[in-house]
Amino acid sequence: MVIKVEGLVKKYGDLVAVNDLNLQVNQGEVFGLLGPNGSGKTTTINCILSLLSYSKGEIQVFGKPMAPDAYDIKRNIGVIMQNIAVFDELTVLENIDYFCGLYINDKRKRRNLVEEAIEFVGLRDYKKFVPKELSGGLLRRLNIACGIAHKPKLIILDEPTVAVDPQSRNNILEGILKLNRDGATIIYTSHYMEEVEQICSRICILDKGSIIASGSKEELKSMIDMGEKVSMEVFDFKEQLLRDMKKIPNIQSIDYKGGRITVKFSKASNNLIYLLDYLKEKNIKFGKFYSELPTLNDVFLELTGKELRD
Ligand SMILES: Nc1ncnc2c1ncn2[C@@H]1O[C@H](COP(=O)(O)OP(=O)(O)OP(=O)(O)O)[C@@H](O)[C@H]1O
Fold it and tell me: Where does the record place the ABC transporter domain (predicted)?
């Protein structure tokens, strides 16, 4: 086991930011910590890294108790924090070399590792640029290169794709999967459910400092009653229609917004057939029609009564 957290409690004054949290991260996983802003993801990560003191709990990393001076453990961890932490006056190459040099003394070895990291994040054409000359997405990639150049066994990324363009986002997500294939265990925190679904093999959903559910995305989705969600464009909408449609079997909820009706069904057979039969029988005209399976946002909504999205 790479990380074991038991009974972690972290308070800021009266505010309980992390509340009796237990989690385990196994070797080789891409482990996702998913939760809305303020749910305690960064605080949990900072406690795991011993960057913050905490009120209660036990934390082990690589089977040993974690402590602020546990340098043998820290050497094997790469951290990519939410806030970009690079030196403004150093170039891309010098920044990566500096951070890699905190762990690797041998100059030749370090040169190779730095070059590898530059290739990895796709910054070959920007080696001599200073941070202020880079776009937001390229700066994020530099931040990542600084955290991974020394080839850590455990890589922790805290919201690494906030405010980046789609191309850099894909580059970052693909890069994380490659690091994992090359042997690193990954912890990935995000409030973007799509990203967590895309790359994480196991996910913990955090709300108000507590884990409310955990498992693979399939396991999480099987925990809720919702079976599918249908969204359809309607013409000549009248409130009465929503009330009438509630009679269709297995409907959990029905809403109208922006010219579309969204219907959530509980898990059951023939939901779409019931709906289409009803629309045909009542001669209700509809335009575009989509059916989707539950998302992690639906899981969050059913478990907490609120949206995961901002
Ligand atoms: N230094 C601090 N002092 C006081 N309260 C804090 C401090 N840091 C965080 N908090 C509070 O603790 C709670 C958890 O914050 P945390 O940053 O861990 O959440 P998060 O899930 O990482 O959110 P975000 O994605 O917005 O960073 C929030 O209510 C936040 O306001």
Answer: 3-233
* Residue nearest (by alpha carbon) to ligand 1 atom 26: 37
Question: Among 118, 76, 82, which residue's Cα sits nearest to residue 97?
Answer: 118
Q: The complex's ipTM?
A: 0.96
Give, for 116, the enclosing helix (H) or strand (E).
Answer: helix 107-121
Residue 10 beta carbon below 6 angstroms from any ligand 1 atom: no
Q: What's domain 3-221's superfamily in CATH?
A: P-loop containing nucleotide triphosphate hydrolases (3.40.50.300)
Question: What number of residues does the chain have?
Answer: 310
Tens-level pLDDT at each residue, the chain (310 residues): 999 999 999 999 999 999 999 999 999 999 999 999 899 999 999 999 999 999 999 999 999 999 999 999 999 999 999 889 999 999 999 999 999 999 999 999 999 999 999 999 999 999 999 999 999 889 999 999 999 999 999 999 999 988 788 888 888 899 999 999 999 999 999 988 889 999 999 999 999 999 999 999 999 999 999 999 999 999 888 889 899 999 999 999 999 999 999 999 999 999 999 999 999 998 988 999 999 999 998 999 888 888 876 5
29 DSSP 8-state letter: -
Contact 56, 213 (CB under 8 A): no
> What is the architecture, at CATH level 2, of domain 225-304?
2-Layer Sandwich (3.30)
Residue nearest to atom 3 of ligand 1 (CA): 12
Return residue ranges of the chain for CATH 3.40.50.300.
3-221
Cα 276 to chain centroid distance, Å, stands at: 36
Best of 18, 34, 41 for a ligand 1 pocket test (most atoms within 8 Å of beta carbon): 41
The answer to whether the CB of 284 falls within 8 A of the CB of 234 is yes
